[in-house]
Write a structure and sequence with these properties.
TIM Barrel, alpha/beta, single chain, eight-stranded parallel beta sheet, 11 helices
Length: 355
């Protein structure tokens, strides 16, 4: 089916647009000579994360890849396909170059700095509609905090990008310097699908297929949200804002009900969790729309959205250039009240990211 690059007939704030670079050589002008020599001598080819295999149909919609690079690497093509048709008021770039899986932490930090300056030069300064996510070496929170301090005051950055698969759960106190720096610079935390670490993406070992890894990622998101609440990250940082990006959302109501039930009987384990876990979710967490893990019956999907018990949790996204829908009206549930539709399309993101 030919790609349909048309919008909804009303403006949107798109909270997940993937930008990429053609090759590691793109970063050479931004790297110290030491690291350029290291990369060439060691034949380093980049992080080990491969969240969007090029052969997988969901990884890129037809026509999104330029002749000289991967999908998402050409600004003009992104403007024509991903910004203009949707009448995009603000588009938030989510570069998922996984420096977190680079075992040499100094190299990871240098790559992050190079990527962030590249984002400024080649994206933010080229289109005023764009905002970006800071790439940080989150495997070393002190180095991540330093990267946030380096770029955090740039008005083009609105969040810090973390992969949902990490070396340890994000509620741990070891990440506090990173969160403190993000809050200092008025940045949200974006936890995004994917990543690579020494740990399997399931609680019981490594899957055999990509579809298992892709579908199982929802439980990794659940583990991270539970950690942020039960380990007290939101108690230590009441201003912490977290976006779940490409997590799906239909699992969230049942998950909140279960957590509230368990908290009632086990709350003495976490005395700093002074309210039901669902309260922390609704206050601190937002979720991007794509990919919609929707039931086939549209009425059932609307019921799930209602069960979130909040008009503020969902934020519109196209996940450009990934392929999750074939037409604009498949990108958002039909039958939403107009006031709720406006919140999902623009106003929730505007408030969450302080746009």
């Amino acid at each position: 089916m030919a790609a349909d690059f048309t919008g909804l007939g009303r403006p949107v704030i798109d909270c997940d647009i993937h930008n990429a670079f053609a090759s590691l050589e793109t970063l050479v002008p931004y790297l110290h000579d030491h690291w350029v020599a290291y990369i060439r001598e060691s034949h380093f080819r980049g992080p080990s994360a491969n969240d969007y295999p090029r052969g997988a149909p969901t990884s890129a919609r037809e026509g999104t890849a330029p002749a000289t690079g991967p999908a998402g690497s050409d600004l003009a093509r992104m403007q024509k396909q991903g910004l203009d048709p949707w009448d995009t008021e603000v588009g938030i770039l989510t570069c998922v170059y996984g420096v977190q899986s680079v075992l040499n932490e100094d190299l990871a930090a240098s790559l992050a700095t190079a990527i962030n300056q590249w984002q400024i030069d080649h994206w933010l300064e080229k289109d005023a509609r764009l905002r970006a996510s800071l790439v940080v070496p989150s495997q070393n929170p002190a180095l991540a905090a330093r990267e946030i301090e380096r770029f955090g005051d740039h008005p083009g950055f609105v969040q810090v990008m973390l992969p949902v698969r990490s070396y340890s759960l994000y509620g741990k106190r070891e990440y506090d310097p990173m969160y403190a720096a993000a809050i200092k610079h008025n940045l949200a935390i974006g936890i995004h699908f994917g990543g690579a670490s020494s740990l399997p993406p399931t609680p019981v070992g490594w899957p055999s297929t990509y579809i298992e890894e892709c579908a199982d990622m929802a439980q990794v998101f659940q583990a991270q949200v539970l950690s942020l609440i039960s380990e007290g990250a939101f108690a230590r940082f009441p201003e912490l804002r977290v976006a779940l990006i490409e997590s799906g959302f239909v699992w969230m109501p049942a998950w909140m009900w279960r957590m509230d039930k368990e908290w009632k009987g086990l709350r003495r384990d976490t005395p700093w969790v002074v309210r039901p876990p669902s309260d922390y979710v609704r206050e601190h967490i937002r979720i991007t729309l794509q990919p919609i893990d929707a039931p086939a019956n549209a009425d059932h999907l609307l019921q799930v959205i209602g069960q979130l018990d909040s008009d503020e949790m969902l934020m519109f996204s196209t996940d450009y250039p990934h392929w999750h829908f074939d037409g604009p009206h498949e990108a958002i549930p039909t039958g939403l009240p107009d006031a709720l539709l406006e919140k999902i399309l623009r106003e929730n993101a505007r408030a969450f990211y302080n746009l």
